[in-house]
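To fix ideas, we reproduce below a protein record of this kind.
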Amino acid sequence: MKVDTKIDKNDELANMNALQVKSCINSSTTAIVVIGACENHGDHMPFGADFIFPTELLKRVAVKLNNVIILPYLPYGLSSHHGDYQMTISLQSGTLVRLIQDICHSIIKNGISRILIINGHDGNIAPIEIASRYVKSKHPTVVIACLEAWWALVGQSRHNLFDVWDGLGHGGEAETSAMLAVRPDLVQMINAPKDLIPKLPAYVRIYWKFNELSDTGTTGAPMKATVEKGLDILNTLETILLSFLNDMEKNEWKYGISRK
């Protein structure tokens, strides 16, 4: 019997069998994983926005790449600062750090030395960095990259795209627009709250709890969100990720003084 090892580029590791995996993994493979969260995003947005949108973005990018493998997304993150809202599911910081370390170690054990993390939630940024630096210290030849905060990146890249606060906000203009572009069936704009820009210092960070910033679970300007803005966000991020990955591939994932 002939065994079909053909791989659809949209396939994730979770959908592949052992023969398919064996046929595509090699020393030049890039492993990509989304790390999200499960928490309140206001009355208009789904709890899974932080992994739903990045996963859809990744699927768009993956079909234009060769030799990548998409790991199952992680639907939970560090969300303790949202813990006062109903059904927030949060990992402790040490748990998330160890989980990311274990995922990376498993990837490396399979001969993959190129790892890209796409993060969908602000609370994950510090644990991802702690875990990645630990793994890097143990495996110096491994390259770990991370798209840390897409919601800030699009505002910085597209200054004229958003109407309020460069699109920032939890369940705000950018995040709501992004979800309208990929899963409009999960967004109920009729329930979107009014604009809310928290009053915070410009240059010194306060480690707040989210109910100190919002009584709706949302900040920013969700009512300004549109499908068109969401599609622009997708295109912008897709271009950035493809440019990064193609450049890294061209230079064999070398950077700094090792890059010629």
Observations:
- The chain has one domain: 27-250.
- The first strand starts at residue 30 and ends at 35.
- The chain has seven helices and four strands.
- The two ends are 48 Å apart (CA to CA).
